[in-house]
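wait is this the right file?? whatever heres the structure
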């Protein structure tokens, strides 16, 4: 998905280095050249400036002063003696079966009061019924409930399984689907449900034709009926619309209509850059602000909007020998720590992007990594509070670092 970007260059900040040997000078030159490359490259993304504090909450170290040693020394620490910072923000975390550590993180952080809601990612909705659900057991759900978390299973409407005619048939009578979801939640003791249907509606063209209003009413009917008939809290996942233009034929009044049918809306404010693209940030702060402002204010979602926080990053391959098999890849917390320990790279920060990155050399391959940090999380929390959003949706539990949760 392409997002509009307005013109304004940005540049990385880094500390001066004392070069004491020819080898160190060569290394410094490589880093400087690559930092220059990043400046020119990412300035082509044309992000507007964001003027704000470089400090994290509570006056912590300036973002541009963080080092690899800081992260290595503190990433696995949680301060259980400090209260939650933002009682007014709702924190939802997704947990998936393919991330083995996610369940432990969910229970531990819920028991610390840092997670309000947990959404297991294991169900799919097909035209002929509900599938999945065997990836998590009753003991996990019992542990979550004991820790104080509400459980909202995510139900994915898989786009390749649905046609426009399927959605037409569903809109004629959504009650059987509502009954199936209600039964599943009742059996599992779940308090709500996350519906990921919007992307399938977009993929089938349901939201771009003359029947658009019919299918918006379908989404509303699912949300309203689940709330009223089953007393479930309902959450709808939305794409990162940042303007009227980016939303296509779905206008702000269309989205505003949905407000009465759902308790919360999750917006996927990440994957601005993806594997195969030019190296760049996962969720540049100006873009996140544009998305949050459009949905919270122009679309009137306000405190019902949960802004997506990625707890994973990207490792971009900048250069490699001909014929090398290495490619860009997603990267998670423990892999980032391993790279920091092995290479001790300099952390690079941009005010205009609000993300940390670092460069490392692996044999003949040159890489650049973008990954969340304490300053980037603190900056985004300040942003969503400023815009008037209701909280955070983390993708996904188990991919991040323990100390991220102390920012909530």
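ok assuming it is, sequence goes like this
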């Amino acid at each position: 998905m392409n997002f509009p970007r307005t013109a304004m260059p940005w540049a990385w900040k880094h500390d001066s280095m004392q070069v004491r040997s020819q080898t160190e000078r060569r290394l410094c030159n490589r880093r400087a050249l690559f930092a220059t490359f990043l400046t020119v490259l990412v300035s082509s993304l044309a992000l507007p400036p964001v003027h704000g504090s470089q400090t994290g909450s509570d006056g912590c170290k300036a973002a541009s002063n963080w080092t690899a040693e800081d992260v290595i020394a503190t990433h696995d620490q949680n301060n259980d003696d400090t209260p939650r910072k933002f009682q007014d923000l709702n924190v939802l975390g997704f947990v998936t079966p393919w991330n083995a550590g996610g369940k432990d993180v969910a229970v531990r952080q819920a028991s610390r009061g840092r997670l309000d809601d947990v959404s297991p990612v294991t169900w799919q909705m097909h035209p002929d019924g509900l599938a999945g659900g065997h990836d998590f057991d009753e003991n996990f759900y019992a542990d979550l409930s004991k820790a104080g978390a509400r459980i909202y299973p995510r139900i994915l409407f898989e786009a390749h399984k649905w046609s426009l005619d399927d959605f037409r048939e569903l809109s004629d009578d959504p009650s059987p689907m509502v009954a199936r979801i209600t039964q599943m939640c009742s059996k599992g003791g779940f308090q709500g449900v996350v519906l990921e249907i919007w992307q399938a509606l977009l993929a089938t063209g349901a939201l771009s034709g003359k029947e658009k209003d019919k299918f918006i009413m379908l989404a509303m009917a699912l949300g309203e009926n689940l709330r009223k008939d089953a007393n479930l809290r309902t959450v709808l996942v939305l794409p990162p619309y940042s303007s009227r233009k980016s939303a296509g034929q779905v206008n702000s009044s269309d989205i505003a209509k949905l407000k009465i049918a759902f308790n919360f809306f999750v917006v996927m404010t990440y994957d601005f850059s993806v594997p195969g693209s030019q190296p760049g940030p996962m969720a540049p702060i100006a873009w996140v602000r544009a998305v949050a402002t459009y949905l919270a204010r122009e679309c009137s979602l306000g405190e019902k909007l949960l802004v997506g926080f990625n707890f994973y990053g990207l490792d971009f391959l900048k250069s490699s020998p001909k014929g090398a098999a290495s490619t860009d890849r997603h990267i998670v917390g423990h892999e980032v720590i391993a790279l920091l320990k092995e290479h001790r790279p300099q952390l690079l920060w941009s005010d205009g992007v609000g993300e940390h990155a670092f460069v490392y050399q692996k044999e003949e391959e040159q890489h650049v990594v973008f990954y969340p940090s304490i300053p980037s999380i603190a900056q985004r929390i300040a942003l969503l509070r400023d815009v008037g959003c209701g909280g955070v949706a983390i993708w996904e539990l188990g991919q991040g670092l323990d100390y991220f949760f102390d920012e909530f």
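Confidence is low (pLDDT under 50) at residues 1-37, 40-59. so i think its the right one actually
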